[in-house]
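## retry 2 of 3
previous attempt timed out at serialization; input unchanged, resubmitting
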Amino acid sequence: MALHEHPHRTSGFHLPSFRRSRTASASEPAVSAATDTHTARAYAFASLRLLTGFVFLWAFLDKTFGFGYATPSGKGWIDGGSPTKGFLGSVAAGPMQSTFHSWAGDTWADWLFMLGLLGIGVALIAGVALRFAAVAGTVMMALMWIAEWPPAKHLSDGTASMSTNPFADYHVIYAVSLIVLAAVAAGDALGLGRLWAKLPVVRDHSWLR
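## retry succeeded, writing output
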């Protein structure tokens, strides 16, 4: 009698394979580390944004109400003081010295300066319109840098300028910080950046982002 071999049939039972689970397990720490790094970076930029925003907003409040810090009590904007007269009137170096003197105390200069401080401060703290704030803030910092003119070793009266660096002073640092915050969309963390980006007018005009 001839014997016929039946074709090999596999049962429905398979030994579990750990290859995929091992690969997934190995990749989990890398994914977790990348997520943690991304989160830490987002919160670091958000912290920088909030602190920088407070610098601008505090300058506005102090100059408006005269809290007794940079602006003496009773000399605030609401008391009739000029936010620009003291600073621009004391410019003693640089190519725009006479121009700044002519601007000092002018109503348009006071309003433009104060609205700039308020707008930049609120935008940074809220995390919205960071590109616009970066442009406005960079222009403001550039003008203030020219007013202080760090490259000068001596003032117009011959006294030492006491400049600590001919280029990289705090105005440059603030300007670069504003540009970086706008570039990384730092308003998305601890801010209203995501909600702001969904507004139709912002979607249609990316420079408002």
